[in-house]
Amino acid sequence: MVVSELSEQDVNRLFRALADATRRDIVRRTLVTDVSVSQLADSYDMSFAAVQKHVAVLEEARLVTKESRGRERMVRGNLERIRQAQRLLDHFEELWRSRIDRLDILLAEDEPAPPDT
Questions:
Q1: Is the sign of the CA dihedral 73, 74, 75, 81 positive or negative?
Q2: What is the DSSP secondary structure assignment for residue 71, as one 8-state letter?
Q3: Residue 61 is part of a domain; what is its CATH number?
Q4: Rounded to an integer, what distance in angstroms lies between the CA atom of residue 73 and that of residue 51?
Q5: How many folded domains does the chain comprise?
Q6: Is 40 part of any domain?
Q7: Is residue 114 part of a domain?
Q8: Which is more confidently placed, 56 or 5?
Q9: How confident is the model at residue 4 (pLDDT cuts 50, 70, 90)?
Q10: CB 15 within 8 A of CB 60
Q11: 28 in any annotated domain
Q12: Sign of the alpha-carbon dihedral angle for 38, 40, 45, 51
């Protein structure tokens, strides 16, 4: 079960990290190819330090990993973590769909019978 594979703290970190458009874009870009922090910083209208902070939030949520390659710090998206997030969202969708289905059944039971003609 998805819920058991992620702690409450993991879920909070995951959604906090994905709540920001810049971080979502960083994840998207780093799932395609490894990108250096410097390259990322050049892509956004913000300081290098701000991009580093975004990457740190993503790292804490385990959505990306960093590794040194020479003098560069390369960022790589974590596809398995994205899959965990997708499974969690699928679980929530299933939960809410079943609740809506039950509500539809209850509402149908409460509908008055059509009058005899």
A1: negative
A2: T
A3: 1.10.10.10
A4: 12
A5: 1
A6: yes
A7: no
A8: 56
A9: low
A10: no
A11: yes
A12: negative
Query: Does residue 117 lie within any of the structural domains?
Result: no
The sign of the CA dihedral 49, 50, 55, 59 is positive
pLDDT (tens digit, 9 = 90+) per residue, 62-97?
Answer: 999 999 999 999 999 999 999 999 999 999 888 888
> Residue length, the chain?
117
Residue written as tokens 């679980």?
91
Query: Distance (Å, rounded) from C-alpha 34 to C-alpha 4?
Result: 30
Domain that holds residue 38: 7-106
Question: 16: how many CB neighbours lie within 10 A of its CB?
Answer: 13
Copy the structure tokens of residue 48.
Answer: 């290098």
Tens-place pLDDT, residues 24-42: 999 999 999 999 999 999 9
Tell me the mean pLDDT in the region 46-73: 96
Contact between 64 and 30 under an 8 Å Cβ cutoff? The reply is yes
